[in-house]
């Protein structure tokens, strides 16, 4: 009888102690350095956004927030690293549309599935893609581009920065909506833009920050942005919807932590990020680079992700895209 009572006391004490420990961890968070994992190489849009946020988090919380680039496998390596990390708020993922929305359909047997193994924290920004063509083909507006593309029939092509990327999926959806018999030509990164400038590709959807200098230099012609509204970085370029094409897409970037991270830590992270995104100077810097900050609470971001996944999954399947 004494042993039974003693065992019960031990279990009860352990549970209470565990609860207090979790509460204290959440209340004192953060009290040590945080790792911010970026699934792509340094210098890209994901990396730029992560470093802007990390710097502000460091200032506010007085603990180092260290960005670690973990590129590879179309963004899956960084996702896997965070998904398998302790759920304590000290390993955070900054990732984009492709690895979170597209890859779970594109790749078979992923060790970490974002919809199952990650907890959404905050949407950082939406970056429009812009339809660009080489300046050398003599197309100056959207109408003349459609005429040019349809005249070429199945010889017209479009490039992308890789299979399953925003450039690929947006290009596929656009060719379907515009009834073009276009062929997709995937590249590994910036080589696609170089071939577009050289005239070896007919068109491409590229993120606004990546091609704005080439547009300003007259090497590429911007014909339309893919989002519902015009980009503040390219205010004179119409949206596809304005031009009569019923589609609106972008390349968004967000923050995630491992599933089962305490809810109050997730909430604290979200509130901090939202506050950072609302700072006028930061907002101005991001807009100048073609990124639109979109603050959301955790519930709003979670709903956004579900809608995005449900929207793109059938598109990925229809495209016939296969992971390399």
Short description:
Helices cover 47% and strands 19% of the residues. It has 324 residues and is an alpha/beta fold. The radius of gyration is 22 Å and the shape is globular.
Question: How many domains make up the coordinates?
Answer: 2
What is the 3D form? globular
Total count of helical runs of at least 4 residues: 12
Number of strands: 11
Strand order of the largest sheet: 2-1-3-10-4-11
Radius of gyration: 22 Å
Distance between the termini: 64 Å
Order of helices and strands: HEHEHEHHEEHEHEHEHEEHHEH
Percent range of helical residues:
40-55%
CATH architecture label of the largest domain:
3-Layer(aba) Sandwich
Strand percent estimate = 15-25%
Assign the CATH topology of the largest domain: D-Maltodextrin-Binding Protein, domain 2
Could you name the CATH class of the largest domain? Alpha Beta
Low-confidence stretches: 1-24
Let me know the CATH homologous superfamily of the largest domain: Bordetella uptake gene, domain 1
Task: Give an account of the 3D structure.
The protein is an alpha/beta fold and 324 residues long. It has twelve helices and eleven strands. It has helices at 2-28, 45-61, 76-83, 97-106, 114-117, 142-152, 166-177, 191-197, 208-216, 263-277, 280-288, 298-319; strands at 34-38, 65-69, 91-96, 118-127, 129-134, 157-160, 183-186, 203-207, 220-225, 251-258, 292-293. It has a six-stranded mixed β-sheet with strand order 2-1-3-10-4-11, with helices on both faces. The chain is globular and about 65 Å long.
